Amino acid sequence: MNNLFSLYVLNKKQNNFLIFSSITAVALLLIRVKITHSFYLLFLIWNLILAVIPYIISNFIKIDFSLKKYNFKNLFFIVTWLLFLPNTFYLITDFVHLNHNNLIQFSFDFILLLSFTIAGFYFGILSIFSIQQQIQFFYTSKTSYLFTISISYLCAFGIYIGRFLRFNSWDIISYPLFLAESTFNCLFENETWTFTLGLGTLITIVNLIYIKSKSNI
Fold first, then answer.
1. Contacts of 25 (CB under 8 A, 6+ apart)
2. Contact, 127 vs 150, CB < 8 A?
3. Cα torsion 153, 195, 118, 158: sign
4. Which residues, 6+ apart, have CB-to-CB distance to 160 below 8 Å?
């Protein structure tokens, strides 16, 4: 499946699962709201919406860096995609909200958070896979795998900035200087590297497994 036509056909086939996983996650959340009369985890819907954005953008990106094809609109899509991509994997950090003593509610919330994490991860995996396959088509397999590994660790670093420094994708416009300063300073913290390497490795493994599974089809 090393041609772009197969890639687009594959992406269309994945849409049903994306829709199903997203609806399942939201349905579980609404059930929780109905049972507990609490809106505590409703922010998960917003986090999932943010995870959808890079997947949509990736469908507009064309990885052909010839002067004839390379233009401002494509560059805008690439930069925006990079800024929003960490939101897809960010949902895994929402497990920090799993803190109930009641076993039944703990179990339900675990399944709920897992459903959102799976949906978010799948948006991210497919988004990266779309770009990776284009890089492989225009360049080499080695380059495409290097891209996948690099982008996985960059996502983990972006998630650290979001979860621990409490920045979001919009802050690059709202507070660019403060964001740049805080990001630079955190590079000297052991916590930053531990988190980035740990989560980045997980994201890398998941992405490579998915790419490998599709290359065998």
1. 44, 48, 112, 115, 116, 118, 119
2. no
3. negative
4. 186, 192, 195, 196, 199
The amino acid occupying position 67 is L
CB under 8 Å to 164, separation ≥6 — which residues?
A: 186, 191, 195
Provide the greatest CA pair distance for the chain.
Answer: 61
Give residue 24's domain range.
4-215
Task: Return the structure tokens found at 106.
Answer: 């703990």
CA distance 179 to 130: 29
Count of structural domains, the chain: 1
In 13-154, DSSP assigns E strands to none
- Tens-binned pLDDT, residue by residue, of the chain (217 aa): 444 444 444 556 677 889 999 999 999 999 999 999 999 999 999 999 999 999 999 988 887 655 455 578 888 999 999 999 999 999 999 999 998 778 899 999 999 999 999 999 999 999 999 999 999 988 899 999 999 999 999 999 999 999 999 898 888 888 999 999 999 999 999 999 999 999 999 999 999 999 998 876 5
The encoded tokens of residue 61 equal 């990106």
| Helix, strand, or coil (residue 136) | helix
